[in-house]
Amino acid sequence: MFRNKILKEVLIALLVISTTFVLLASPVAAYDNVLPCDTNEDMILTKEEVSTAVCDYMLGNDISSLDDVGDASYIYSFWDGEPFTINDHYNNREVKLYRPIERIALASTPSVRIVASLNAADKIVGVYQNIIDDNGLIVTKAYPEIRNQPSIGSGSSPNAEAIVAVEPDVVFYSASSNAESLQGQTGIPVVALSATFGIGFDETNGANDVWQLAGNILGKEERAQHLIEYSQNKIRAISDVSSTMPAENVKDVYIATGGNNDVIKCAPTYYSLDIAGGNNLAEGLPSSWGSATVTKEQIVLWNPDVIFIRYYTIGQTLTKDTVNNDLDLALTNAVQTSSVYYIRGSSNGMDPAIAIADANRMAKHMYPDLFADLDLEAEGNSIYGEFYNEDGLYTQMLEDFGVFERWN
What we know:
Blueprint: H1 2-21, H2 47-58, H3 66-78, E1 84-87, E2 94-97, E3 104-106, H4 109-117, E4 124-127, H5 129-133, H6 138-142, E5 153-154, E6 157-158, H7 160-166, E7 170-174, H8 178-186, E8 190-193, H9 207-218, H10 221-242, E9 252-256, E10 265-266, H11 271-276, E11 279-280, E12 292-293, H12 296-302, E13 306-310, H13 320-324, H14 333-336, E14 340-343, H15 352-366, H16 376-388, H17 393-401
Parallel strand pairs: 3-4, 3-7, 7-8, 9-11, 9-13, 13-14
Antiparallel strand pairs: 1-2, 5-6, 10-12
Helix pairs in contact: 1-3, 2-3, 9-10, 10-15, 15-16
């Protein structure tokens, strides 16, 4: 009994040491799809295998490294001694993890928002080139060091060799069949995370699912649950007010997708508008990457009360002047009443922080009397700060873009 007590204390102490030492230790040479210290290679770590590894290390026997012993202790203590199996967002695809996650490669832009919001940005060791190039990402304003990480690819696909070179424990990728192909090329677990445009947080593969999945993988379950509850409270604070608007006074809205697109490109789903209580005139239209194409004749026929323009790229060509000076749209209610506004929006997937802040902005534009007391800038700073642990991010965004309305 005394011997077992000592072993337990050693295991716990070694686990604590290993989780702090890992930031200082050299990375492993390559990812192996085997459990560390699994001497009989049956994919199950037993107490005897872990205790033997601990004792060998403590006695100075050069059999297993501290990383291996620490990882084995973690797997035995928290994963019941077996590989950690998850189902990701590409057709419920199964992925097995053989090590606790200390090094992450991000092969898609949306994944950086998820990892950072879970307070795991310090684990990032490689990023997709788009993350480095996009100067409009809120998350890299909060964590500028992310843009200094090695690039692991650009264009239409990640670079398998570059990913292997940064030696991650896991790769986060978009929810596509390419995740399986990339895993085959690298031999490293690749997890497909959803970045679905516009859908509700609580829908299948929405933000809540993504936080929960990534939180389970990274050991950030409590933080994931906090983000879910925080978001629910913020969403409810808006929708509880906007839902009091009588049905006959609900605004008909057209959302132009912005960037360098023509005004005829629109968003058929936009969760921020759902929260804010507007009627999306393009709802239900077939879309590709969150965008549908209509005609100006259709926009005129819809006759929106409000036109929102996503302004997610500094210096984009689609502006309020584009809409207000368009003779084809001159007689729409939105243009006639000067109800053409910008919303921030996000590119390369949805940013949950922007989605909630945009809901506030849309609600204040559409229903100024209901939201007269809403301090949009203070609320935006609070939301961005909660997600990305940095003060003043919303104010910085307003100043960087220089086009958004600001209320006194």
